[in-house]
Each structure stands twice: as structure tokens, then as C-alpha cells.
Amino acid sequence: MKKLIIVIFFLMGFMGFSHAKEKPLSKTLTIKQQKLIIISALTAKGDLIPLKKQLAAGLQAGLTVNEIKEALVHLYAYCGFPRSIRGLQTFMVVLDERKKQGIKQNQGKQATPIHDDRSKFERGKSVLETLTGASQDGPKAGYAAFSPEIEIFLKEHLFADIFERDILSFADRELITVSVLSSIGGVEPMLNSHFGICLNLGITPEQLRQFITIIGNEIGRKDAEKANVVLTAIVNSKKQIPN
């Protein structure tokens, strides 16, 4: 009887272990996120020929038309209107070619209208607090103190007008952002801040290392190496903070 009980417990444990292996927790970026990273980085660099191919690949991977459009619009805040508009124009060509081939496009959802009585500044401040996990009520410092105008523009436009649009999640928007910042170079302090936001939003260090690998394989080794220096520093600093 004791032997039978032992066998039963062993089988239950084995079955439980097998079930756990069948549904592991995801430690990698989704295919759609990977495509958003590549599309965003290529657009930021202005590499339109490979971008065209990757836009089609993004649609094939399940990104909707509106998700890709939203990504291309979002990144203008980090690399400028010219790059964003050239990305949109390239996407228009891709969609036109697919239409001629009889390929049906998944347009995806539209942004949900915002119903909030607060000012855009207050809404943007609230979004930024969610992104960073830190209060935005303290005294201004750095560029915010030096140029209060840009502080207003950032909160009212970037974090209210753009980030509040729910076509993309905050995590997806931050992956787009670090893709741009990693690709244009020379903006390491901003990249450091946005890697920190990624971690605060639940994107894991492992996923960010996968991000570095994607940048290295698809965009450029030097871009990946510089981004990796920033990522390594911030991950190490997080490890040193006591619980």
C-alpha cells in the first residue's frame, strides 16, 4: 500500500512538472514587438529599402495597419517629422502594392476617445508618473528648469496627446522609443531613462538583452554595443538597490 501511494505521488508530481513545462512564462519579446523594434529603428535611421521589407514582414507577423501607423507617428517625437513622414510614405507604398496583389489588410482598432476633465498637462504628468513610477511634483531641475516651455510641451503633447492613445500599450511605445534612441546615437542619457521606464513597466532585463541582439542583427553592431553599455549600467544599478 505504501509503495502504491509513493507511485501515485510520483506520477502526480511528474504530471504537474510536465504541465508547467507546457505553459512556461514568456521570457522573450513577442514577434509583433520584435517587428516594431526593427521597423522603428530603420525608420529612425532613414533606411527605407530594408524598412519596406520589414513593414511587409510586420503585417505578416500580425501587426495591424493602425498599429504600424501609430508606431511611425509615435517615433516622430524622438527622431523628427522628416523620418516619421518618410516612414509613413514608405508604408503607403507597401499597402498599395499589397492591395494590388489582392491581400486584405487588417486595419485594427482606432484610438479610444479621451474623456478626462483634467488639463492635458495634468494628464501628461499622470502618464509620466505611471511610466517612471515616480512623483512628478518635485522641484524642476536640469532642462525642465532651464526651459520650462519644453517641460510643458512634453507633458501636454508627448505624454498626453501621444502616449494616451491606446492603439499601442505603454510597453510597446517604450520599445519603439528605445529603438529610436539606440539607432540615432548621441542620446545616451535619454536612452538610460527609457531603459529604466521599460524595466518599471515590467519589460525584463532578459527581454531588453534580446532587444540589444535584434538591434545588432538588424540595425548595426556599433548601435547595439553602445546601447548595451547603457543597459548593463542601469541593470547593475538596479541590482545594487536594497529591497
Summarize the structure.
This protein has helices at 2-22, 31-45, 48-60, 65-74, 76-79, 81-100, 120-132, 142-146, 148-162, 170-184, 188-200, 205-218, 221-239. The chain has 243 residues and is mainly α.
Poorly predicted spans: 1-25
- Tell the overall outline: globular
Work out the radius of gyration: 22 Å
**Order of secondary-structure elements:** HHHHHHHHHHHHH
Count of helix runs: 13
Helical content band: over 70%
Largest sheet: none
Number of strands: 0
Distance between the termini: 48 Å
- Indicate the mean pLDDT: 90
Computed structural class: mainly alpha
> What fraction of the residues are assigned to beta strands by DSSP?
under 5%
Give the helices and strands, then pairings.
Elements: H1 2-22, H2 31-45, H3 48-60, H4 65-74, H5 76-79, H6 81-100, H7 120-132, H8 142-146, H9 148-162, H10 170-184, H11 188-200, H12 205-218, H13 221-239
Notable features of this structure?
243 residues; mainly alpha; 13 helices; 73% helix; globular; disordered N terminus
Report on this model:
- 73% of the residues lie in helices and 0% in strands.
- The protein has helices at residues 2-22, 31-45, 48-60, 65-74, 76-79, 81-100, 120-132, 142-146, 148-162, 170-184, 188-200, 205-218, 221-239.
- The protein is globular.
- It contains 13 helices and no strands.
- By secondary structure, it is mainly α.
- Helix 7 (120-132) packs across helix 9 (148-162).
- Residues 1-25 have low confidence and may be disordered.
